[in-house]
Amino acid sequence: MAADIQIRKATTEDVPRLREVIEASVRGLQAVDYSAAQIEGALKSVYGVDSQLIADGTYLVAEIFESNHKPTIVKPTIVACGGWSKRKTLYGGDQFAGREDSLLDSAHDAAKIRAFFVHPDWTRRGIGSLILEACEKAAREAGFTRLEMGATLSGVAFYKAKGYAAVENQQAALGNGEVLPIVRMAKSV
C-alpha cells in the first residue's frame, strides 16, 4: 500500500484530530526522555493546539492519502503537525499560561518554530522534515533571517541534524508541580 503525503495549512476543523495526534505523539515518543508525571503535566498545561497559529495561517498538517491502486475514494488522515510563528510565544498551546502573542519584528527578532508532533505510527518517514522545510521557507518569505524554538529533549537530535544549535536549557513549569526540561535552539536562514 502506497501513501501520498501532502502538507497544507491547518484549519479549525482539524483541531479534534490535532489533539489526537499531539497526545499520541507525546505519549508514544517522549516516554524515553520524560517521566509519566511530566508527560501528564505537559499534556494538561503546555502541549496542545495553538489556535493563534491556525488563525495566523502558520500551522501546517501532514495528511496521508493511502492508496491500494484501486479506484476508491480515500479520506486523508492527519499524521503530523507543526508550524512557525511571527509572535513572541516560544512554545505552548492555548492552555499554556506563559503565552505572549505580541508580534515580532522580522528585522530584529527570530521567528518561532512551534508545536511539532508526529504520530508514532508515522515517524522516520521524512514527514517532520517536510513540515520543517515548509515552515522555514514561509518564515524566510515573511522576512525573518533567524529562527528559534523550545525543543523537547526528544526533538533535540532532529533539530541539530537540521542545523539548529542549542542556545540554553530551560524548564517549563507544569500545572502538576513538575517541570519540563526543554532546549532553546536557534538557526540563521
How does this structure look, described?
- It is a single chain.
- The protein has 189 residues and is α+β, with helices and mostly antiparallel strands.
- The protein starts with a strand and ends with a strand.
- A 7-stranded mixed β-sheet has the order 1-2-3-4-5-7-6.
- 37% of the residues are buried.
- Helix 4 links the parallel strand 4 (111-118) and strand 5.
- Helices cover 28% and strands 32% of the residues.
- It has helices at 15-29, 36-45, 51-56, 127-141, 156-161, and strands at 2-9, 59-67, 77-85, 111-118, 146-152, 165-173, 179-188.
- The chain has 5 helices and 7 strands.
- It is globular, with a radius of gyration of 16 Å.
Protein traits:
189 residues, alpha+beta, seven-stranded mixed beta sheet, globular
Instruction: Report the biggest beta sheet as strand number plus sense, adding barrel if it closes.
Output: 7 strands, mixed
Percent helix:
25-40%
Number of helices: 5
Beta-strand proportion:
25-35%
Anisotropy-based shape: globular
Structural class, from secondary structure content? alpha+beta
What's the gyration radius in Å?
A: 16 Å
Average pLDDT confidence is 93
Strand order of the biggest β-sheet:
1-2-3-4-5-7-6
Span between N and C termini? Answer: 37 Å
**Uncertain stretches:** none
What's the layout of helices and strands?
Blueprint: E1 2-9, H1 15-29, H2 36-45, H3 51-56, E2 59-67, E3 77-85, E4 111-118, H4 127-141, E5 146-152, H5 156-161, E6 165-173, E7 179-188
Put the structure in a nutshell.
Helices cover about 30% and strands about 30% of the residues.
